[in-house]
Amino acid sequence: METTTHIGGGGRIVLPAEFRRALDVQVGDEVILRLDKDEVRVSSRAAAIRRAQEIVRRHVPAARRLSDEVVAERHEEAFRE
What we know:
Shape: elongated
Strand content: 5-15%
Structural class: alpha+beta
Radius of gyration: 19 Å
Strand order of the largest sheet: 1-2
Largest sheet: 2 strands, antiparallel
Number of helices: 3
Number of domains: 1
Oligomer: single chain
Helix content: 40-55%
């Protein structure tokens, strides 16, 4: 999908409705902008979270729960204090 748009006042760029639908974002939602060499990439927060989870899963087995490990570490630290 590709289109053109204009830069408006204050540097604003309007995302056309078809792009907002494809990203599943609504007016007022936060999006993430990433400058990648000479391109700006726009992602929804949900897409960024999915991407991060995919990266973690490549390095951490699905059966391992990192959140449980962090909680256990915090309990150990609190016990030592």
